[in-house]
Design brief:
The chain is α+β, with helices and mostly antiparallel strands and about 350 residues long. The protein contains 15 helices and seven strands. Bound molecules: iron/sulfur cluster.
């Protein structure tokens, strides 16, 4: 099946040519965009990308920055391991590649956070090297084009898809082909309703011929997500500051600042002057739901926490600008509206109930 000609003709007319990372597409700029675009929509990525490049215009500036600064710029984008890996990779490029992004596929794949598809995309888009890619969009297009049944995350299906991806990737003009097939997946061969009438490949597409395009790719048989419960303690001291905890570097929200995930212990309860339970809400991760119950409490004199490195008292304006997980940021914004003219938090007294 030869898809190149109709695909490229469509791309020149309808593809995306004005994305910020397509202007001056250096290896560094393309790398940052490809990592941000993993699991994230283009429209969400654009402001984060611009801000990131403004703060870290080069690999050297990224490598030299504290990881906290990188996480802060990533705050709200999710999947924070991507930010930590970017930082580690920049440091590895600085120390092992004289600060120059490698140009060979094996060296790029060896960097933290870069798999075969991302490495192929970076080298293809920045240097026009003919490497196949197989991100989510391309998997969907190829699955339909060749009517491949079975969940694409399964090893045997993925291997088949890589073979087709390599067959379709041209030796010349790889960068346009790569951008074209990604654009087709993002704008025409979309997940729920593929726009086959507008598709340049409809004459060739087997799923379209068989009218099974909406059944492909075969979804993964999903297990029910388990539900976990937690309490976020929003503790304010007499200086109108809020207690924040820096999480361990690995695990969920690794390296980000959060509220302590703790209920009020008996010793802490003794120091609490007021407390207020906020409505609980759910934050969903790939593998589980987290039901969060926020508790706002004020304490007159409680400095024990700051003795430990991972805790610190912050003014709310400063806290909002830390590297934060999305639910923490949401609560801090709500807390801002509880500030009185004197800079205190307005807390209504209530009885502490057992959390769910
Ligand atoms: S014809 Fe339809 S299903 Fe096939 S590649 Fe095009 S948009 Fe996707």
């Amino acid at each position: 099946m030869k898809i190149n000609k109709p695909l490229l003709a469509w791309f020149h007319q309808h593809g995306r040519h004005n994305l910020p990372w397509q202007q001056n597409p250096t290896l560094y700029r393309v790398w940052i965009s490809e990592i941000m675009l993993q699991q994230t929509q283009v429209t969400t990525v654009i402001p984060y990308y611009k801000n990131f490049i403004q703060h870290f215009p080069t690999i050297a500036t990224l490598a030299a920055a504290p990881v906290d600064d990188v996480l802060q710029l990533w705050s709200g984008l999710g999947y924070y391991a991507r930010a930590r890996n970017l930082h580690r990779a920049a440091q590895s490029i600085a120390s092992q590649h004289d600060g120059l992004f490698p140009t060979n596929l094996a060296d790029v794949v060896a960097l933290p956070g870069i798999g075969r598809s991302t490495a192929g995309a970076i080298l293809s888009l920045a240097l026009n090297q003919p490497h196949p890619i197989l991100d989510g969009n391309v998997k969907r297009v190829l699955t339909r084009l060749h009517a491949i049944e079975g969940w694409p995350g399964k090893k045997s299906i993925e291997t088949q898809l890589w073979v087709f991806a390599a067959q379709h990737t041209p030796k010349k003009n790889a960068k346009h082909y790569t951008q074209a097939i990604m654009d087709l997946g993002a704008t025409i061969c979309t997940r729920k309703i593929p726009h086959c009438k507008l598709c340049p490949l409809s004459q060739l597409c087997i799923a379209h011929q068989q009218q099974i395009q909406e059944q492909l790719p075969t979804p993964k048989t999903r297990k029910k997500r388990p539900i976990r419960n937690t309490t976020f303690l929003m503790l304010c001291n007499s200086n109108h500051q809020i207690l924040m905890e820096k999480r361990a570097p690995t695990g969920i929200w690794g390296g980000l600042w959060c509220f302590p995930e703790t209920a009020l212990s008996p010793s802490l309860s003794k120091n609490i002057t007021k407390k207020e339970i906020w409505p609980g809400f759910r934050h969903t991760f790939t593998h589980f739901h987290l039901d969060i119950t926020p508790i706002l409490a004020t304490t007159k004199n409680y400095d024990n926490y700051v003795a430990e490195d991972e805790y610190a008292w912050y003014n709310i304006e400063t806290a909002i600008n830390l590297g934060l997980a999305a639910p923490t940021k949401k609560l801090l914004i709500q807390l801002q509206s509880k500030l009185t003219k004197n800079g205190e938090f307005y807390v209504t007294q209530c009885t502490l109930r057992k959390t769910r």
